[in-house]
Amino acid sequence: MSTLITTNVKHPSSSSNNIVLDANGKVNALKVATDLEIDNDLKFDSGYGSTVTGYGVRAWCTFNGTSTVAIDAHGNVSSITDHGTGAYTVNFSTAMPDAHYAIIGGIIGQYGEEHTYTFVSSPWDPNTANTTSASRFSTEHYSQGYKDFDHINIIVVR
Amino acid sequence: MADTNKRIIYTDSNGVNIVVPAPNNPDLTIEQLQSQVVPDGVTSYIVDKSDVPTDRSFRNAWTYTP
């Protein structure tokens, strides 16, 4: 095995260095044009104050729960199952490593309604608990119970 | 790609369940999605999106007969 000793790596057609190494052996600047895959923790500062592990949004979805239920946009979501009024399951394209993830939801109610809504995720839903491949939740109105909403947003963090 | 103009329907003790495919999932057909999300042993059907009513006033009372 041989060792390449250098501080800068530059593509012939690039106007600046593509990889810059500092005296501590760390990459000082790195530009990635396509996917970056990291097999272990991703640690960063970005104004946090120290370099610690960041935790990613593993799935997200925004969908319409009224009329023709339809997914507007998503990441890592294969489908939404509509179980009835205000009751849904989000199904993941790539499964979570376990069921101990956090799912957070938000609801935008129709114009003119009283804006007191609740997003209930499955640990508090008697029908089912989270699995690695899906999470059931409900959208509810403070006085009307289960209710459909036209903008439902969810994120899953793990 | 799972056809977003299709829906997967199955029933259970709580009523009619309708699976809505996500757009832009190039690696998943509607049949593959059906096998992934429908509970084992439950009969399900693939229907056109237009076959599902848009008036959800009595959504929990819906029934399905293929």
Description:
The complex is a heterodimer of chains A (158) and B (66). In chain A, the strands form 4 sheets. In chain A, strands 8, 9, 11, 12 and 13 form a 5-stranded antiparallel sheet that branches. Chain A has a 4-stranded antiparallel sheet with strand order 7-6-14-10, with no helix packed on it. A 3-stranded antiparallel sheet of chain A has the order 1-2-3, with no helix packed on it. The radius of gyration of chain A is 22 Å and the shape is elongated. The two termini of chain A are 39 Å apart. With 158 residues, chain A is mainly β. Chain A has strands spanning 8-9, 19-21, 27-30, 43-44, 52-53, 57-64, 70-75, 77-84, 87-92, 102-108, 117-121, 134-141, 145-146, 151-157. By secondary structure, chain B is an alpha+beta fold. Chain B has a 3-stranded antiparallel sheet, covered by helices on one side. Chain B is globular, with a radius of gyration of 12 Å. Chain A binds chain B through residues 61, 63, 66-71, 73-74, 77-85, 91, 93, 127, 133-134, 148, and chain B through 2, 4, 8, 14-25, 28, 33, 36-37, 49, 52, 54-56, 59-60. Strand 8 (77-84) of chain A pairs antiparallel with strand 2 (15-21) of chain B.
